[in-house]
Amino acid sequence: MPAKPRRFMFSLPRRSDIHEAVTRFCVKNKVRKGWINILGAADVAKIGYYDQVRRKYYDRTFKEELEIVSCIGNVSLKDGKPFLHLHAALGDTKLRTWGGHLFPGSSVFAAEVFIQEVAGPALKREPDASTGLALWRCRA
Ligand code: ZN
Fold first, then answer.
1. How far is the CA of 47 from the centre of ligand 1 (A)?
2. pLDDT tens readout for residues 94-125
3. Distance (Å) from CA 111 to ligand 1 centroid
4. What is the pTM assigned to this prediction?
C-alpha cells in the first residue's frame, strides 16, 4: 500500500457481479484493507443471513428491478487475497426494503463505488471456532 491511504470512486459495468468487479479492482490496485460503500441498482441480487445456531448461511435471490439503497462492507485478506464482506439494503418497485449479507451472484444495472483504503497492518480473515465464520482476530 502507498504511504498515504487512498480513496477511490468508480462505477461498475452493467451486468457485472458486484463481488467480482470490486474484487478485481482491489487486486489490480493492491487495496488490501478498506471500507466500501456502494449505491445504484441491480436486476439480480442474492442476500441472506447467517443462522447462528445452525452455523449456516441462508440466502434468497431476487431477480427484479432493485435499488441498491445502501451497500456497505469492507475488504481485507483471506487466504492472502483481497476478500469482500458486503451487506446490502435493496429496495423493490413497491419501495419495500430487503436486507442482509450480500453474496456473489448479483447483476449490476448501474452502481457507484467508494472505497476508503485504511493504513496499518493487514487484516486477515481466519476461521473462528466460536462463530464458525472467517473473522479478523479480535483486538478490542
Ligand atoms: Zn455478512
1. 9
2. 999 999 999 999 999 999 999 999 999 999 99
3. 20
4. 0.95
